[in-house]
Design a protein that fits this description.
Blueprint: E1 18-23, H1 36-52, E2 56-60, H2 73-90, E3 94-98, H3 102-110, E4 115-118, H4 127-132, E5 138-141, H5 159-177, E6 184-187, H6 196-204, E7 217-219, H7 224-230, H8 238-250, E8 255-258, H9 261-276
Parallel strand pairs: 1-2, 1-8, 2-3, 3-4, 4-5, 5-6, 7-8
Bound molecules: ligand 8Y7.
The site of ligand 8Y7 has 15 residues, from strand 5 and strand 7.
């Protein structure tokens, strides 16, 4: 299965699962262009994640949590671009930019971003063109509805088949726009317009996405599907998140997007030792 994997534009070996560390850019933290202490604290967080074993850092300037308010293009640029530039100056790590706006994609690619992570799968105005003009890989995430309302009664004919069909349609759109298949990473979008049962059904059936023969990225870290199942606050979801990460990796997930890099790398190392000694 892994032999068919090809994301040659991502300069990263995906033969074992890799960890993507989430950089928290708290609302307004860089909206003044990035104060020194805020930037330094972000860089310290990045350094910690690199030491802990993250191979990609994901920076987002727009909250995509259910019910979140929209962020203006200007604010998003001010939150993301200074920290992106500072990371690329100081560290040798791949940087992914979590955005759904073409202007932010263009600015990020110019500033040295290594990957675009779009929860809207390049469906917004200008996004296909922004990525097509570059040579960076892109993560196409599935979402039903929009962040503000997506958790209001999500419904599917068949969750897995509907998401596979969505991926096929977005892959075609990318290829038509000039984005080679080798640049595409897929993500079923845990928590983005899915009930608790649908999220766990997805986790149980992740291996079905291998039919598309593209790298799979998954993000479950600290999400409501863990919190609601276990009745845990966001800070108490580590054990649940690690369990989910391992279940995903066992089914072929190639990139695991997490807050807790050190613990996730440990868990994946245990899984790898099992795989290596079968
Ligand atoms: C995901 C994501 C978020 C995810 C990808 C959170 C930006 C919500 N979740 N990107 N972004 N996949 N590719 O709780 O699951 O982290 S934001």
């Amino acid at each position: 299965m892994l032999n068919h994997l090809n994301c040659s534009s991502l300069n990263l070996d995906l033969s074992t699962p890799q960890v993507m560390g989430i950089l928290n850019t708290t609302p307004d933290s860089f909206s003044d262009g990035g104060s020194y202490t805020q930037l330094e604290s972000a860089l310290a967080q990045v350094e910690r994640m690199i030491v802990d074993g993250a191979s990609i850092i994901d920076i987002g300037g727009e909250s995509t949590r259910p019910g979140a308010e929209d962020v203006s293009e200007e604010d998003e640029l001010a939150r993301v671009i200074p920290v992106l530039i500072a990371i690329k100056q100081r560290f040798d790590v791949l940087v992914s930019i979590d955005t759904s706006k073409a202007a932010v994609m263009n600015a990020a690619i110019t500033a040295g971003a290594d990957m675009i992570n779009d929860v809207a799968a390049l469906q917004n105005q200008g996004c296909l063109a922004a990525v097509a003009q570059s040579d960076v890989p892109v993560c196409l995430m599935h979402m039903q509805g929009l962040p503000r309302t997506m958790q209001n009664n999500p419904s599917y004919d068949h969750v897995i088949n509907d998401i596979v069909a969505f991926f096929q349609q977005r892959i075609e759109a990318c290829i038509s726009a000039g984005i080679a298949r080798e640049r595409i990473i897929l993500d079923p979008g845990f928590g983005f317009g899915k009930t608790l049962e649908q999220n766990f059904h997805l986790l149980a059936n992740l291996s079905k996405f291998s039919q598309l023969k593209l790298p799979l990225l998954i993000g479950i870290s600290r999400k409501s599907m863990i919190g609601n199942l276990l009745n845990r606050d966001v800070k108490q979801r580590l054990a649940g998140s690690l369990s989910a990460a391992i279940i995903a990796a066992q089914q072929g997930a190639n990139i695991i997007r997490v807050h807790d890099v050190e613990a996730t790398v440990d868990a994946l190392t245990v899984l790898q030792a099992v795989t290596d000694n079968q």
